[in-house]
Amino acid sequence: MSHAAQGLRKGLRRVLGAQLMLTFIVAAAAALDAPHQDALERLVAAVAGGAIAMLGALSLAYTVGHTDGAGAGAQLWLYGGAAARFVLAIAFLGLGLGVLHLSPLPFLIAFGLGQAAYLVPGVSSGS
User: For a disulfide at 39, which of 10, 22, 31, 69, Cβ 3.0-4.6 Å?
Assistant: First the structure.
């Protein structure tokens, strides 16, 4: 594995940690802010939204693990992985909101903050 891929995987571990922490914070806030009968529903919605974001990070880590060079095969893995992450995110968001009827506010806040976790310092620089 190249040095750049190792740096990216290290950064992805930080992103996953930040996503996990943010998901728990949103889930706790959503559950504590809700009336007693809605607390569990909002907690589940927040955890599901955060889990979708974490699934995208895990998918990216898997894709990076399969790119052992700078050739066309590596580019194909990266582009294919990006397309797969996009399709999975849309499908799971649709499943959560449309089919399972999860509470939209904690669901989308946890997902959005999970995506914002990519802005954790040191991820882009690989340090």
Answer: 31
Strand, coil or helix: 122: coil
Q: Which residue shows structure tokens 């007693």?
A: 36
Domain ranges of the chain: 3-119
Burial class of residue 37 in the structure, from the number of CB atoms within 10 Å of its CB (0-12 exposed, 13-18 middle, 19+ buried): exposed
Query: Could you read off the pLDDT of 30-75 as tens digits, one per residue?
Result: 989 878 778 899 999 999 999 999 999 999 888 877 776 667 777 7
pLDDT at 124 over 70: no
d(CA 93, CA 104): 10
